[in-house]
Amino acid sequence: MKLTKTALKQIIKEEVKNLLESQDEQLKNYSPISIELAKKAIESVDYPHGAAVENKIHRLIDEMPNINDDDRWTIADEALSVAGIMIGVGADAL
């Protein structure tokens, strides 16, 4: 069976769509702030390396005003789970 370039593009397009839908489904249980922190952290690092993303998340949280220590760690844990989902390693990887 020969796979044409057009067919391959269609397969890739469908797989990306499925991946994004799956990711959206996984993220629906997380807070908007955690999702935003994870997005900002991933976008700001050159390569989505777990330690770099984690450091950036903590730096972003440190810049947030009026946040207590309990909330800081709760948000950080959730944002790390979201980042893991976004970069494709899973919620418990970072």
Give me a quick take on this structure.
This protein has 94 residues and is mainly alpha-helical. Helix content is 72%, strand content 0%.
| Amino- and carboxy-terminal Cα gap | 41 Å
The total count of strands amounts to 0
Query: Element order, helices and strands?
Result: HHHH
Main sheet makeup: none
**Mean pLDDT, as a whole number?**
87
Secondary structure layout plus pairing:
Elements lengths: L4 H23 L4 H13 L5 H13 L6 H19 L7
What descriptors fit this protein?
single chain; 94 residues; mainly alpha; 4 helices; 0% strand; elongated
Task: Walk me through what this model shows.
It is a single chain. By secondary structure, the protein is mainly alpha-helical. The chain has a domain at 29-87. The protein contains 4 helices and no strands. It has helices at residues 5-27, 32-44, 50-62, 69-87. Helix 2 (32-44) packs across helix 3 and helix 3 packs antiparallel against helix 4. The longest helix is centred in the N-terminal third of the chain and has 23 residues, at 5-27. It starts with a helix and ends in a 7-residue tail after the last helix. The mean pLDDT is 87.
